[in-house]
Design a protein that fits this description.
Layout: H1 4-10, E1 19-22, E2 28-30, H2 31-47, E3 55-59, H3 64-76, E4 79-82, H4 89-98, E5 103-106, H5 111-120, E6 124-127, H6 135-141, E7 157-164, E8 170-176, H7 177-190, E9 198-201, H8 209-221, E10 224-227, H9 233-239, E11 245-248, H10 250-257, E12 272-275, H11 282-292, E13 297-302, E14 306-310, E15 324-325, E16 330-334, E17 348-353, H12 365-371, E18 378-386, E19 392-397, E20 402-404, E21 407-409, H13 411-419, E22 424-434, E23 438-447, H14 455-465, E24 474-477, H15 491-497
Parallel strand pairs: 1-10, 3-4, 3-5, 5-6, 9-10, 9-11, 11-12, 12-13, 23-24
Antiparallel strand pairs: 1-2, 7-8, 13-14, 14-15, 16-17, 17-18, 18-19, 20-21, 22-23
Helix pairs in contact: 1-7, 2-3, 2-6, 4-5, 7-8, 10-11
């Protein structure tokens, strides 16, 4: 029995002294050195009693050792559980305990706060800081750079990524070796990645875009990555001349367009710019092409499926669309209630099917049955249409999702927090257009009595309990929420009311 992800992504690089990670200080990590570090970490996982199929919860900054930990989990047969670095200990408690993690890896500064949480599920805890140092790094350094990969099958779990639903309870999407590998192969083929590429990587590695799209594709193709901890304008401009490709969220591209140093000459050598994780405005498409001569390639995916569609590498990359289904994948637009496929051009619920589609939600069989149909199609929750040429356009979100700076925000979670605050009778959370983040959070509050809401107190508590990207940037206090005759809150009306709150 083999190990599909190890065999495809890691094994081909054994002994290769080619550059894999180019770091901000200019130093490089070769493919061979990366595999050696991953093998040492695999030994450290075993020493921490992490068994085959055990979950490893990871809440650390983006570093080469952090990426090696992902490779170590593949090699050792563990399940990788990356967690947004903005999450607070209160938020992390749910993910760690729900996944029944066997190991928690965190920044040393979080050790005191997370140790009691780890203890509740009898998990070990190790540290890894923003420089790649900590107890995990020290433990790994004691082990050899060779490790025999643990046999795994295509249907075995490789990763667990949490998403959220409108119920407010986060769902763990179970992703198999086949889910991840099939998607990496489809993307590498569609986007023409080869070992000659150099990918400018400024995305986080706690979600599918930065980890499974960028890193898995690069490992599969054998190319180098300029591995930056975050998007920093100056550093991006410094490294662009060394890159051939770049993956980003719309915010990356809008910020580059605001910089006079970002010129056609600077990127004349580039092969490809990819955008995802949030809709790219048609105006951004046009402005970018006008400035650089490059047309951004927009694609569409989600936590449960990785990538589903892509505008073509060769052919018309149409603004406002997310292109065609990737190789081996199917899409359809259906009536939201009956699941009957609708005629071409009509708007309905988007369903997707393919080897990339997850195998279900962790410990949620009923939710799995609701969203993963018997015929293998997954109900995305996104409203879409497919035109006569086959281009898919996402036109709305049935799950009321807010996407801010590429991060998914689920209103119900924030509403539950706000409703629990003293003086708040009820709340509604919506997204409003934001010039930098695409969307940002607006909280509309109804007081229990006049003057009963203390916004300063709510903001102070939000800083402790909510990740920064989830915190409302605008508050409105109203007498009552708008409702229809059935009592349902009219969020569409509210989005119109507050559409301009972030506009200059």
């Amino acid at each position: 029995m083999s190990n599909p992800l190890f065999d495809a992504l890691l094994a081909p690089h054994q002994g290769k002294e080619s550059s894999f990670l180019i770091l901000p200080d200019g130093s490089e990590v070769t493919h061979s050195a990366f595999l050696g570090l991953a093998n040492q970490m695999a030994h450290a996982l075993r020493a921490a009693d992490v068994g085959v199929g055990d979950r490893v919860a990871v809440h650390v900054e983006k570093t080469a050792p952090a990426l090696a930990l992902y490779a170590a989990c593949i090699t050792a047969g563990a399940v990788f559980l990356p967690l947004n670095t903005a999450y607070t200990p209160a938020e992390l408690s749910y993910f760690i305990t729900d996944a029944d993690a066997a190991l928690v890896v965190c920044d040393p500064s979080e050790l005191a706060a997370l140790t009691p949480i780890a203890e509740t599920c009898k998990a070990a805890i190790l540290t890894l800081d923003a420089s790649g140092q900590g107890s995990l790094a020290r433990a790994a350094a004691q082990h050899p750079t060779e490790f025999t990969p643990v046999p795994r099958g295509q249907n075995d779990l490789a990763a667990l990524l949490y998403t959220s639903g409108t119920t407010g309870r986060s769902k763990g999407a179970m992703l198999t070796h086949e889910n991840l590998l099939s998607n990496a192969r489809a993307l590498a083929e569609e986007w023409r990645f080869t070992s000659d590429d150099v990918l400018l990587h400024a995305l986080p590695i706690f979600h599918s875009h930065g980890l499974f799209v960028a890193c898995n594709v690069s490992l599969l193709a054998g190319n180098a990555m300029i591995f930056l901890p975050k998007f920093d304008q100056k550093t991006i401009l410094q490294f662009l001349p060394r890159a051939t490709t770049m993956m980003g969220v719309p915010t990356f591209y809008t910020r580059l367009l605001e910089d006079a140093r970002f010129t056609r000459d600077l990127v004349a050598h580039m092969r490809l710019f990819v955008s995802g994780s949030a809709p790219l405005l048609a105006e951004t498409h046009l402005a970018f092409e006008g400035r650089t001569g490059h047309r951004i390639l927009e694609r569409y995916g989600m936590t449960e499926t990785n990538m589903n569609t892509s505008n073509p590498y060769t052919g018309d990359r149409r603004a406002g669309t997310v292109g065609f289904p990737l190789k081996g994948m199917e899409v359809r637009v259906c009536d939201p209630e009956t699941h009957v496929e609708l005629p071409t051009g009509e708007i309905g619920m988007l369903h997707v099917r393919g080897p990339n589609v997850f195998c279900g939600y962790w410990n949620m069989p009923e939710k799995t049955r609701e969203e993963l149909l018997e015929d293998g199609f997954f109900i995305t929750g996104d409203l879409a249409k497919i035109d006569a040429d086959g281009y898919v356009s996402i036109v709305g979100r049935g799950k009321d999702l807010i996407i801010s700076g590429g991060f998914n925000i689920y209103p119900k979670e924030i509403e539950m927090f706000l409703d629990a605050q003293s003086g708040v009778k009820e709340s509604a959370v919506i997204g409003a257009p934001h010039p930098d983040f695409g969307e940002s959070v607006v909280a509309v509050l109804v007081p229990e009595a006049e003057g009963s809401i203390d916004l300063d107190a709510i903001l102070a508590l939000a800083k402790a309990e909510l990740a920064g990207f989830k915190r409302p940037r605008h508050f409105a206090i109203v007498d009552a929420l708008p409702r229809n005759t059935m009592g349902k809150v009219q969020k569409a009306e509210m989005r119109k009311t507050y559409a301009d709150v972030f506009q200059a």
